Amino acid sequence: MSIEIERLGNSFFAEVRNVDIAKPLDAETVDTIRQAQRDHGVLLFRDAHLSDDQQEDFTAHFGTVEFNLRSDVDHIAALGNVDLEGNFRDPTTAQASFLRANQQWHSDSQFFKVPSALSFLRAVAMPDEGGATQWADTRAAWEALPPTRQADLQDLVAINDLQKSRAKTGHNLTEEDRKRWPPIEHPVARIHEETGKRALYVGSQVTGISGLDDAAGEALINELVAHSTQEQFVYTHEWTVGELVIWDNRRCLHRGRPWDEESEARDVRRSTTEGSGPTSEGGLPVDEYARARAA
Ligand code: OGA
Ligand code: MN
After folding, report:
1. Which of these, 121, 118, 122, lies nearest to 49 by C-alpha position?
2. pLDDT tens-place string over residues 63-84
3. Which atom in ligand 1 lies closest to the alpha carbon of residue 268?
4. Residue 282 and which of 22, 138, 185, 259 are 20 to 30 A apart at CA?
C-alpha cells in the first residue's frame, strides 16, 4: 500500500497513513514524507509507537538532530510531568516551571540565535482529560494580512528576552542561563528557507520590537499573536498514546493545554532538528530563502 496523506482541519495539519516509521525507511518514502512536511507544516503519524532510539533515527531523516539542553537522554527531551521512569516530577522545581511555559503560544527555542527547524513530539502517556496540543498556522495568518499591513511589518525585528518571557510563568533564570541566552533578535515575519514564504514569528517568548518602546512593542506582539491564533488558523489535537507529530517551527506556533498535573501523567518526548541562521542581521530580517539558494 502506498503512503496516503490526508489534510485534517482548515489549512496545515495532515495525517500520514500506510507507513511504519518505526522501521528503516527507503529513500523514496523519506522523500515523500519530507515533501509532505514542506507542503503541510504539521504531520500526524498514528500508531507509530516509537522507542526513543527509533524517534531519534526517524528525526535524522529531516536534518541534524539537536542535543537537548534540558533532556533526560541526549537527543530526546521528556517534556511532560513525569521522568523517563514514569515518576512524577516535583512541580515546584525550576524545570517544572520552565516546562509549564509550553502552555503559552510559542515556537521552539525561539530564544536561540539559531532556533530549531522541526520538532518531533511523541505521546508516551496521556491523561484521560485535557493535555491536547494546539498549532496555529502563522503563514496563513501572515497571508491574511492586507498588503499595506504586511509592508509595515516586513522589516521589523522582534526582541526575545528569555528572562522577561519566562518571568511570566514564575520561572527565574539562573545567572548562568542569562549569560547563555541573552536577549536576541528575530524577524517579525520570517522568510522560510525552503519555500520563500513568510510567516509571523512572534509568540510568548518575544518581549519587544526593535525601535518601538516597551508598551508599543508589547501591544503589537499581542495583536499579532491574537491574529495568528484565531480559530480559523488553529488546529487542536487530542493525543492517543503511540502517536508522533512533526511540526515546522518556522511556520507555526504551538502550545500545550492544561491537565490535572497532580494526579495524571502526561509523558511527551521531543526531538528537534537544527535550523540555520542568523535570522536577522544589522537589525533587519535576513532573506533566508535567498541565503539558502546562494549557499
Ligand atoms: C513542545 C511543546 C507542548 C505540549 O514539545 O515543544 O511545546 O503539548 N509541547 O506538550
Ligand atoms: Mn514547544
Report:
1. 122
2. 999 987 555 567 888 888 998 7
3. 10
4. 138
pLDDT of 164 > 90? The answer is: no
Give the model's pLDDT for residue 168.
76
Q: How many domains is the chain partitioned into structurally?
A: 1
Select from 127, 120, 139 the least CA-distant residue to 40: 139
Reported as a single tens digit per residue, the pLDDT across 82-105 is 987 888 988 888 777 778 888 999
Q: Which three cell numbers stand for residue 63?
A: 536534518
Cβ of 165 below 6 Å from ligand 1: no
Sequence-distant (≥ 6) Cβ neighbours of residue 270 within 8 angstroms? 68, 76, 77, 79, 108, 119, 120, 121, 122
Q: What is the CATH number of the domain that holds 63?
A: 3.60.130.10
Ligand 1 in reach of 160 Cβ (< 6 A):
no
Residue 15, strand partner residues: 6, 44
Q: Which domain holds residue 162?
A: 4-294
- Atom of ligand 1 lying closest to residue 102 CA: 7
User: Does residue 126 line the site of ligand 1, with CB under 6 A?
Assistant: no
Residue 41 Ramachandran class (φ > 0 left, ψ -120 to 50 alpha, else beta) = left
Q: How confident is the model at residue 170 (pLDDT cuts 50, 70, 90)?
A: confident
pLDDT of residue 76: 87
SS3 142: helix
